[in-house]
Write the structure tokens for this entry.
Amino acid sequence: MSLKEKEYKKRFDLDLWKSLWTYIKPYKKQLIYLAVFMIGLAGVDMIFPLMSRYAVDNFVVAKSTQGITSFALVYLGLIIIQVLNIFFFISLAGKIEMGVCYSIRKDGFKKLQELSLNYYNKNPVGWLMARLTSDTQRLGETIAWGAVDFIWGITLMAGISIIMFVLNWKLALLTLTVVPALVLISLYFQKKILAAYRQVRKTNSKITAAINEGISGAKTTKTLVREEENLNEFKSLTQKMYHSSVHAAIFSALFLPIVLSLGSIGTAIALWYGGKGVILQTISYGTLVAFLSYTVQFFQPIRELARVFAELQHAQASAERIISMIKEKPDIKDSYKVEKKFGSLFKPIKKDWQSIKGEIEFRDVTFNYEDGERVLKNFNLKVEPGETVAIVGETGSGKSTLVNLACRFFEPIHGEILIDGINYRKRSLAWLHSQIGYVLQSPHLFSGTIEENIRYGKLSATKEEVIKAAKMVNAHEFITNLSKSYNSEVGEGGGLLSTGQKQLISFARAIISDPGIFVLDEATSSVDTETEKLIQNAINQVLQNRTSFIIAHRLSTIRSADKIIVLEEGKIIENGSHDDLIKQKGHYYQLYTNQFLEEQETGLLNT
Amino acid sequence: MKKIKLLWKFLKGSRTLYVLAIVAIALATIFSLLIPLITRFTIDSVIGNKPIELPTFIENAIAFVGGKNSLANNIWICGAVLVLLTGISGLFLYLKGKWAARASESIAQNLREKLYKHLQLLPFKYHSTVKTGDVIQRCTSDVNTVRRFLAIQFVQVGRAVFMVVLTLYFMLQMNVTLTIISMATIPFIFAFAVVFFLKVKKAFKQSDEAEARLSKVLQENLTGVRVVKAFARQKYEVGKFESKNKDYRDLTYRLIRLLAWYWAVSDFVSLIQIGGVLVIGSYWAATGKITLGTLLAFSAYVGQLLWPVRQMGRVLTDMGKALVSAERINEILEEPAEELSEDGIVPDFNSDIIFENVGFSYEDGAKVLEDLSFQVKKGQTVAILGPTGSGKTSLVQLLPRLYDYQKGSIKIDGVDIKQIDKKVLRENIGIVLQEPFLFSKTLRDNIKIAKSELPEHEIFSAAESANIHNVIEEFDKGYDTMVGERGATLSGGQKQRIAIARTLIRNNPILIFDDSLSAVDTKTDAAIRRELRAHSKDATTFIISHRLTTLAEADLILVLEQGRLVQKGTHQQLLSQQGLYKRVWSIQNNLKTEIDEKKTSVEFTNKEKI
């Protein structure tokens, strides 16, 4: 696959964590409390063996039961403290985790709204989704729960070392000799384990892709009699999956026993020297018992810490992806002056917004996309207010580019585009877009009701306005025929409606705000004859007395346009009314006759 | 119960490994439970003065190393035994991990392959109505749920059972009363774990659903970015996202709070249990009822015992999920596969194709084709014309038996196709579907997909015949371009032409083009058909098209309306009849007159359409 994401392999990146601090800072207080509870938790964890020591030395060895009641009460007190520690640390870590994720998502989403189409062309939706879902989640998890394990582990290890040294420094020193080996082995294994599971995930996504292809391509597979080859290819994938999964599992399975065995060496040393000490009466029974518990306790956090460190590397990669997205500068942005006067996308200042007459002019416009393809060179075009311009031409001739430029989804590299005689960069994006009605080739609806979807074009619209817009584009009838009328759900992406119905609703959505300029990328997909007629009537309605810019496919739309522009490789090769162009017997004539035939035949066959 | 049986069925082939894994975990548990006994022995009898009470062979072993006194002088031996036991226990732990992974992974592999194979074998009809997303989920996340349960939880249940039974045994050996005290809270903790996880199921679900809503808003926003921008709805979208974002945060936080309660309560009970054993044990040890070593061993056992019991709640909920997943997987596997009639006749596809009173209807009884009879001579080209829904596609799909007709017969070489081995039939009929599917391989691999060993020049010549060679050469990577790769997105017409090339490469005696040149412009269409005539002149060819030039060239034209054959004949014959064919043909002449007379009014076409 060529769609590989950049791999980040840098060592600890301080700048990055500084940027991240912005998101953690609001939870500084919680983080401090969390640290307090974790230290408390580790503290009580350390006291428990001391309690055992006390019991052994003062009751068992001394053969006395005096004070055992108060001992029990103290123990109960410790339990209560510990339980509170547990409850609060989980709650706090959860709060921090969810809070940090929430604010990163919030900022990320806001940034995504500002970024221009160019960014979307370069980054597939799946990647952007992953930034705000799995990447964010991993980061939040590592920050909150990583902190938990880190503080607890460090406190516990430091505390136990101190207690052991205080109790008996020689024994402590001997017991802790296994620690360096343990640390190294833990780090090594955690790295390997993470890498192995990463491989598993990669193979897993390949399997998912293969299953997807197996299902979507099943019909083709049958006609090609390719079932066996497909299965064999799939089998080689599952085989790979088996091996990488077992490999990863073996690493994890090896890790725990090795750590336990190394730890037991520590315990054995404590038992050996401690036992000798007890016999020689240089060490008390209780101390020996406490040491035995401590050695077991001491080695647990090493495992956890190793895991945190390994995860930190992955979290850093996630952080890098998210932060670089949030720091991305949009290609198309209002200048500081413009933003000050007209406001931003999120805080528009509408008092200086002028209404629009609808004159559009391309003046000496040169443009090419980043990949160098599809160029406009010194392009000139003037559309008068109220005029309908139909753009025709083959795929790749630059039709969509014209629309992209007119809507300021992209900006010219040279030259300028004027709306009502003023360069559109001198007025804000929000202003321009609030004046344009735009209908896409494949209408995109949002889940929700029909009413909500139409109102998307004018958020303040009343129910009456919604109905009026629907009536204007002939959508009212089919809508009222639905069981829930305007409250019918359209489904995800409008999936519950037919293509034609979606088109009609997208017309209503575009027209409800009564825009000064109407931009239409006409659909090529065929719909049934009935809907086709409705759509054509709707288009005629919408275009009346409105500056319209149309990438046209339907003959009736093309013919009723005031001006037809034939594009080829970014240049206007023919320009005029339908009758003029037919007379010229040039490109338009060819295009028209071919398309006419197709349309007529399809029309006839679909009745 | 039926579901558990299902899980048991999935285990087939890996049962031995599972038994081994469970034996390994049992051994690991036994050895790890011996460790506190060593500590107890060392403290009581080596360091302390308690007489040794051990099985004879161990006492013999101790006598062999020099008796108790020698041991006391060499306590390192006790330490070494401790390390050794941990090592052995660790070894079994490792073996358990390895075997359980092998078993569960091979079950997962098995399931995946079975599912994939079965999906390919399911009939054409199934794939026409299937919900892809749902099936993918069953093949991936459901398989994973089952796998995870089998790899981790299943063995864990075994471990918990062993743990409880063995610990109980060791403890009972030492002191019965203290054992009862040590186990006192276990039923309570177990019940609490089970009840709690059943209760929080809803909270888990709510959090999952909130996450799904969040992703949905995100995805709709990202795919609809043009609409958002065109209507300047950024602020509105941010508001919409904000509410879902908050929802997810709050619901998940609520869940974490619930879990915090769970751990707090269950830790409270567990710590009370541990503390209780310590206090009561100390009291009894002080009064001489038990030894110090026994006290220490009990303390260790209580801790070991509590953990698996607390995990049981989780295990049970996961088991519920795994059972549901197993059933969802099984639903696919139980769909009846296509009958392939593998022992059928193998004809040589050398003579005419005869349709006799063929009738075909869907399972719900809706009639698609009725009483179709016609004969096609070897090498002839048949063009099929008809309105949408008239049964054109169904007609051509009957030939390779993607669907089976119910009435009449279709014969090739005088043999009813129902008697022919389906595989052979499909290998000899090349069909290009209306919306062809390309595999995510290189263009080269896509073209030679039906034939693995093929010289370069044959691939090129097939591509040239399909008029796609030049287009491919223009791509940066040429024939090595991956389908779906950025910067080389294929248009509908290009996809159709690749599909034609991969069909031509098979040199089939029968070719079917189901409107598969619809997205290609008329010039290219004509060029491709010219190539076809030159290269596959012996092939019997079926073409569904509404392009007049295509129709006119055919040896036989079939006109379908509502599943019935209303006209058949050559171009000349059909022109002399009243009917659909003549009406379509006359449009072209109308256009000529229209343009000649410069009558270009909109009304004219609209009238024509009505």
